[in-house]
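Just curious. Protein, please.
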Amino acid sequence: MSEEAPSISRADSSSASATPVSLKTNPPVSPNLGLGFAAMGIVVICWSGFNIVSRIGGKSVLTPYDLAALRFLVAAVLLSPLFIKSLGMPDLTPWRRIALASCAGLGYALLVYIGFSLAPAAHAGVLVNGGIPLATTLIGWWIFGLKPTQRAWIALGITVAGIALIGRHSLQSENATLTLVGDLFYFLAACSWGFYGQLVRRWQVNPLAASANINMVSLLIYTPIYVLFLPKGIFEATTDQILLQAGYQGIVAGVIAASCYAFATLRIGPTRASLMLALVPPISAIAAVPFLDEALTIETGLGAVLVTIGALFGASGGLGIRHHKS
């Protein structure tokens, strides 16, 4: 049993938030938990590279809207057989499909790519990957009636301290206004992904079906808007630039990372899964030095360390999330 929520059947999931439940805060590690942590290890690797590759794209002639189009197109084509198969799943209603795509597809991708065009990759590592645990927990509490335990609050407090240091660094940067706007987009992307994690857990969505749905529905909604109205730089980009972004955004981020995250969320819960993402900031901050020539400042480095400590403290202790009456 996950430490975050009891096993709830679909028939009574709508009333779960109104039922007090006492959960163990340190359950034994089961095979399901082990697989969940392994899946999140893959996500950490994928998203660390995502921050670097996306910042490369954000600094190129490609616009944020080009990056989103490449992500949705490649992933949707690869997962189209699974999307067609998922059409027969009664649990994935049209409303649920749109909700999942809006959170982890359109919402997350557009917000984060705009952020990459304005702010450093190291900030993304902290504000997106460090912000997702905070957003996931608060959304679970305010909307789904999942009250964090004391340990969860302490872990999140440490995370917030790290995020605050990044905000301080942004105020001191050369282009402070643009950097702060980019930071805001990063955190809004974290909120969008945090909502997705809670929905996957609540609706018990098949990981591959979720990934196929996110990309195909996003592609169908986004393509006409992109073609008709949004600025493009893809025609000026080199073949190498397009192939790098199409491959990483579409395959690694759009298929592998999204599917593994959904799988891990079902096995270890959205809060614990999201907290593991805070292992990404130090990797991204260090990798940004040789790959992007971005300086690793004291504020950024300390912020990444604090966010990582918060993640390890929360995830290693078995974060308990209690249902309570709203």
